[in-house]
Amino acid sequence: MPVFPRPLRRAFLVACLVLSQLSSIPAHAVIVRGTVTDLGGPTANMYQMKCKDEGIEKACRRMSCVFPEVCENLGTDHGPLLQIMKAVREEPGVKKVFIASGVRYDLAERSPEFIAELAQHHTGGQLSVAPEHNKKDVLDKMKKPGIESYERFAGAFQAACEAAGAGFSTRPHFLILTAFLVLALPLAPFAAAAGLRQALE
After folding, report:
1. E strand intervals along 30-71
2. Pick the residue with more confidence: 201 or 54?
3. Largest CB tally within 10 Å, which of 55, 72, 134, 153?
4. For the packed helices 79-89 and 112-121, what is the interaxial angle rounded to 10 degrees?
């Protein structure tokens, strides 16, 4: 077994599990002609993130580690995830590994290395992320980061794509595009939905 620094040992073991699953599941279920279609999932890039101090974590009364802003006590190191991404890429028979879902851009923007790896090795055409809306009051109700965070991430991702010689872009998902969904939640007045539509146009 390779010798990783202690914080990455668990990541290596999980990577082994991921790789063993790739080997045991029929190729057509996970791999299409050598392509892993999605190594992501809900909040995929929060893998192994936790409070920096166990005592603080036990005493903490915050409802969320990432809202209204990322807690200064949350460890946002993407290193364990980067180890898995690299290990799966190097698995025999795997030609391409996509991360098609689950990227939290408010955390991803804190790791230029993750963004660079994402752009160079794990994006196919467009990267889908979900800013949901552009109005702060609506995003606050959804406990989502502000649109400024998305814009910073999109700029960093675009720069990483250019550095890697890849012509990729982000494809944001906004709830405004389905008026029924916006009104049925209900999280935003119609004026906010109309404002977002106008901004997108």
Report:
1. 31-32, 35-36
2. 54
3. 153
4. 20
The pLDDT tens digits for 62-96 are 999 999 999 999 999 999 999 888 988 888 878 88
The radius of gyration of the chain from alpha carbons, rounded to an integer in Å, stands at 19
132 backbone dihedrals φ, ψ, rounded to 5°: 70, -45
* Residue 131 host element (H or E): strand 126-132
Token digits of residue 101:
């879902």
Q: CA-CA distance, 19 to 32, in Å (whole number)?
A: 16
Contact 139, 147 (CB under 8 A): yes
- The mean pLDDT of 124-146, rounded to a whole number, is 84
Torsion region of 81: left, alpha or beta (phi above 0 gives left; psi -120 to 50 gives alpha): alpha
Write down the pLDDT at residue 177: 36
Distance CA 85, CA 63 (A): 30
Q: Give the three-class secondary structure for 169.
A: strand
The single-letter code of the amino acid at 117 is E
Domain extents for the chain? 6-175
pLDDT of residue 168: 62
